[in-house]
Structure formats: C-alpha cells, structure tokens
Specification:
This protein has helices spanning 2-10, 67-84, 95-102, 106-119, 137-161, 164-168, 171-183, 186-202, 207-220, 232-251, 254-265, and strands spanning 44-46, 63-65, 92-93, 122-125, 129-132. The protein is mainly alpha-helical. The strands form 2 sheets. A 3-stranded antiparallel sheet has the order 3-5-4. A two-stranded antiparallel sheet has the order 1-2.
Amino acid sequence: MEQARARDAATPQPYASTHVPEQAGGGQPARPLIPEQADIPEQVDIPEQARGEHTHSEPPAPRTVQRHSVRGQILEALRTALVDGELIPGEVYSAPVLGERFGVSATPVREAMQQLAIEGAVEVVPNRGFRVTVRTARELAELAEVRAMLEVPVMLRLARTVPATRWAALRPLADATAAAAATGDRAAYAETDRAFHRAVLTLSGNQQLVMVADDLHRRSQWPLTSAPVTRRADLVADAAEHMALLEALVAQDLAVVQSLVREHFTGADG
C-alpha cells in the first residue's frame, strides 16, 4: 500500500486554471491561454506535483504568485498614459490590444480599466472596450473649486499648529517636484505633485481627507482634449509655488499661505 501511495504522489497533477476562455467567432470555444502570472489568482499555492517535479517526503513550501502586482503595474502604466495624453479622450481602447502593447493577457488590463472606470477616467463600451472620458473646462474648474474647499482650510489650520521643523522636513518632496518639472515629464511631475500634497495633508491626521483629496487631485491632472500641451515652464512655475508655500509655512505667515494656496489651485497642474 505504501508503494501505491508513493506512485500516486509522484504522478503529476494537471494545473487547475480558473480562467474561462472567451468565445471566439462562430460559437466555438477559444483556445485556452497558457497560464501566466497575470492569470493566476492573487494568492495561489502551486504545488510541486503541478510542475511535474520529484516529490520528497517533506515537500518544500509552496510558491506564491501575486496577481495584484501585475494589475497594479498595468494600472499605473495606464494612468501615466492618460496624463501624457497617449490615451486620447473620446477614443475606444480594447483590453486585448492594450494587453499586446504591455506584453500581458487581456485580464489584468481589463481589471485595471475597470478601476479607471470607477475613478471616472474611462467608461465601459459593451463588446468594444473602454472609452476615455472627455472632460470639459468647466469640470476642471469644478474640481479645482472642490479641492480648494477641502485643502485651503486644512492648510491654514496646519500653518498655525505644525512646528517649522516638520514643514522643513517636506523640502525633499518639493525639490522632487522641481526636478520633475525641469525635465518636462508631465507624468513624473504629476506623481511628485500628488506626493507633496499628500504629505502636507497627512499632517492633519485625517486619512479619509487624504484619500478623497488625492482622488480629486488625480482627476484634475487628466488633460482636456482641446487643452494645449503643458509647457515645461508651466510645470517649473507650479513647482516653485510648492517651495514658496513651504517657506511661508515655516515662517507661519498665514496671509501669504492663504494667498499662495488659493492661487495654486487656480492652475491646471496644482
């Protein structure tokens, strides 16, 4: 009996994929995809038998594959493409085509696009893909107004209570925005810009505020169809406002802080 158990343990077991192939034209099932990292559930333990390897009496710890890492990378790549204007407002993009571009299956692309749909960056087009949302100048102005309503009072309150040493600690983040602006890289500037604002608002201790403000900030960074390409000089000027704001906060000059913050939100890249 022990010999029979040994033979059974050494017999490779088939990989149990949860992927359901899409139907090809004509009603015939599409050829199953070769399982890859993007198609494996988020926490999947792959036993040694499934890989056809020799089994010892004490098998090694199972290998764990993180699916969300692939989906997260695709999501960030798509967000960068949105900020850079590579994904054109009004155009429809299919998950399989974008998957070929990124070298992955359609699954993580579709999941990333669904997240962008929740954020309002794209909308689902049945049987076609996802259309990049067309935004208006009025929507951009409304976003700036809401951001100012949230952030200005918080920054003024923090200016009265946060010691100068903590504001000075944010200088590296302000420097990072200046460095990104100097290159003219809109996507890199967008990331450093949001990082600076998140760090400032985090001092409030209100994580819900930080999350809501960051979502509004991200939406304000998507370009308009008719908007001119953001010049490097505009990014440099916007980044300079961060440093000027920090200097006013360190000095606890409330009048200057209020003026700078309100002016900062009137710009498209603030």
